[in-house]
């Protein structure tokens, strides 16, 4: 019986892969923040129908590309159990999209919207599951080659997660346009008058809560900038990025001063609005990062903290916000910044003498305020 089921699965997979290969060769179509905002400002039945018809064709292309890559990863990563599970999620989603008939009217559009909502939920745990797959790979490799010779893995994960951000943004934006009572100044996921100071405040409070839970105390976070300044952006994206940066800074300060009787210095956030970019600087006095470690901080195989997947290999960990995780916070935050034309840079000054009040790390988060940048399509 088991052999029969395996054979059936193999046959199904073969026919599915052939279609995945065909769709994976098709051209992707990127959109800009400005276009999403302008198109979504009138969520009429006609526009929602147009949006659904676009997604009905666009999503299978993007998902097919990632599914194909998941099957051809180097160093045996494709065969790790966690990666196989992620691949199955992508194949299931591709199949669901391709089986959905042509969208012709409002009823079709509503059914399609429910279906892609389910796809978004299915993929909720992709990041921790892929992290688990990378951990499974690392355990079987010599430590000396993990960081040096795995550029292909890093490049794949950058493409994979950047694509995931885009897929979730497109689905989430379409679904949210159905909200009959959207918050003021919101067009789907986009807040047309977002206050970066307010988002930074909320993200900092969330990060301090995690720090308090893990260490019993947390440094203060001081935020500077124009409280009246607003610009169009996606608050959930900004919250994630600032949360990760502040969380890292709080942990660095807390651990740097663990044996000191001095009051821990605050983490400082400065919001500057330029003509083209909004820059958010997060500064700490947590001792800094060794220069040898700086090239690694944007890789997916590096973390200065204990990996939560080392001791727990169940997906339950995906729902727990840990103080320091599997080393994905910085590289994924940089991808979120780049998704709409921004970037993330880290500058560090290492120092362990507690008499030096300035040794620490500065993170510069650049966000494009023009909104004209097209999605980067890996």
TrEMBL record:
Transmembrane segments: none annotated. One of its GO terms (cellular component) is endoplasmic reticulum membrane. It is found in: Endoplasmic reticulum membrane; Mitochondrion matrix. SUPFAM superfamilies: alpha-ketoacid dehydrogenase kinase, N-terminal domain, ATPase domain of HSP90 chaperone/DNA topoisomerase II/histidine kinase. SMART domains: HATPase_c. It is a multi-pass membrane protein. GO terms for biological process: regulation of glucose metabolic process. It is an enzyme of class 2 (transferase). Keywords: ATP-binding, Endoplasmic reticulum, Kinase, Mitochondrion, Nucleotide-binding, Transferase. It catalyses: L-seryl-[pyruvate dehydrogenase E1 alpha subunit] + ATP = O-phospho-L-seryl-[pyruvate dehydrogenase E1 alpha subunit] + ADP + H(+). One of its GO terms (molecular function) is ATP binding. It holds the Pfam family HATPase_c. The keyword Mitochondrion applies. Residues 235-371 form the Histidine kinase domain. Gene3D superfamilies: Alpha-ketoacid/pyruvate dehydrogenase kinase, N-terminal domain, Histidine kinase-like ATPase, C-terminal domain. Its EC number is 2.7.11.-. Belongs to the PDK/BCKDK protein kinase family. This is Protein-serine/threonine kinase. It comes from Quercus rubra (Northern red oak).
């Amino acid at each position: 019986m088991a052999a029969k089921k395996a054979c059936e699965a193999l046959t199904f997979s073969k026919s599915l892969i052939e279609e995945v290969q065909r769709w994976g060769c098709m051209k992707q179509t990127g959109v800009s923040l400005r276009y999403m905002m302008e198109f979504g400002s009138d969520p009429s039945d006609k526009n929602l129908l147009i949006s659904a018809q676009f997604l009905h064709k666009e999503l299978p292309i993007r998902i097919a590309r990632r599914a194909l890559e998941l099957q051809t990863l180097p160093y045996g990563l494709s065969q790790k159990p966690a990666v196989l599970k992620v691949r199955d999620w992508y194949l299931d989603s591709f199949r669901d999209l391709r089986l959905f008939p042509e969208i012709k009217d409002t009823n079709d559009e509503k059914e399609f919207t429910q279906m892609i909502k389910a796809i978004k939920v299915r993929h909720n745990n992709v990041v921790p599951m892929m992290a688990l797959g990378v951990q499974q790979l690392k355990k079987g490799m010599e430590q000396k080659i993990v960081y040096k010779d795995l550029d292909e893995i890093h490049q794949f994960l950058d493409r994979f997660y950047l694509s995931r951000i885009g897929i979730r943004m497109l689905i989430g934006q379409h679904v949210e346009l159905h909200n009959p009572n959207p918050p003021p100044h919101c067009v789907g996921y986009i807040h047309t008058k977002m206050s970066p100071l307010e988002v930074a405040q909320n993200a900092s409070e969330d990060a301090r809560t995690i720090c308090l839970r893990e260490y019993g105390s947390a440094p203060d976070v001081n935020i500077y900038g124009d409280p009246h300044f607003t610009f169009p952006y996606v608050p959930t994206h900004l919250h994630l990025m600032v949360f990760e940066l502040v969380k890292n800074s709080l942990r660095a300060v807390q651990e740097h001063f663990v044996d000191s009787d001095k009051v821990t210095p605050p983490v400082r956030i400065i919001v500057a609005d330029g003509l083209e970019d909004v820059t958010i600087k997060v500064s700490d006095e947590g001792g800094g990062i060794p220069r040898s470690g700086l090239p690694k901080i944007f890789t997916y195989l590096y973390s200065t903290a204990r990996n939560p997947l080392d001791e727990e290999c169940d997906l339950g960990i995906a729902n727990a916000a840990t103080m320091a995780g599997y080393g994905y916070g910085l590289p994924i935050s940089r991808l979120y910044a780049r998704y709409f034309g921004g970037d993330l840079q880290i500058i560090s000054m290492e120092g362990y003498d507690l008499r030096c009040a300035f040794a620490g790390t500065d993170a510069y988060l650049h966000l494009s305020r023009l909104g004209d940048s097209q999605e980067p399509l890996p």
